[in-house]
Amino acid sequence: MxxxxxxxxxxxxxxxxxxxxxxxxxxxxxxxxxxHNIRDWAAGKHKNVDDYPFGGGAGMVMxxxxxxxxxxxxxxxxxxxxxxxxxxDGELLNQKVANQLSTCQNLLxxxxxxxxxxxxxxxxxxxxxISIGDYVLSGGELAAMVLTDAIVRIIPGVLNDETSALSDSxxxxxxxxxxxxxxxxxxxxxxxxxxxxxxxxxxxxxxxxQAVERTRERxxxxxxx
Length: 225
Ligand code: ADE
Known about the structure:
single chain, binds adenine, Trp Operon Repressor, Chain A, alpha/beta, Alpha/beta knot, 5-stranded parallel β-sheet
């Protein structure tokens, strides 16, 4: 998969993309992530990327020209399955959306900032708008990192143990069962004996029951889906 991210703050991505699973996915060649600074497509001495909104109002708006020039240049070299804009008005990200996007070959992700982006970008160049939750972030960058992580970790081969993504919370509309590790007895708090029984069938049954119980308790709506 190839992911191109358009942002005014490429530096924000350095940490999350250079560690752990996202790093390994890139090193192993499962994903190529390219960051593009929208300012590089801005015109004039000051390389302005934002301007006052027509009709007044608070905040600045990201200008159509640098964003569109950047999108068009990338599209002239690569076909993108989706051109995604991260926005609180978008479709809510969930596991189903992540699963679907993880099957794409090329994704272009646009991060907005300030008061938003000129509407003409959204109506003419964006194919999908995604929100990572019903709250407002300062910009699309953190949302783009969340989205990229959720997509990349489920590309086959990215996780060492292929089954571990399958048993994630949400993959079967169930939350994950509790997990334990050594020591067995921590100050009298013991791990469930069944997990040390060696009986794989009983262990699988226990995990499933725990997942169902936890989902019923915490997120009953998930099971109805
Ligand atoms: N940009 C600002 N808030 C956002 C959100 N909740 N999801 C996606 N992008 C955003």
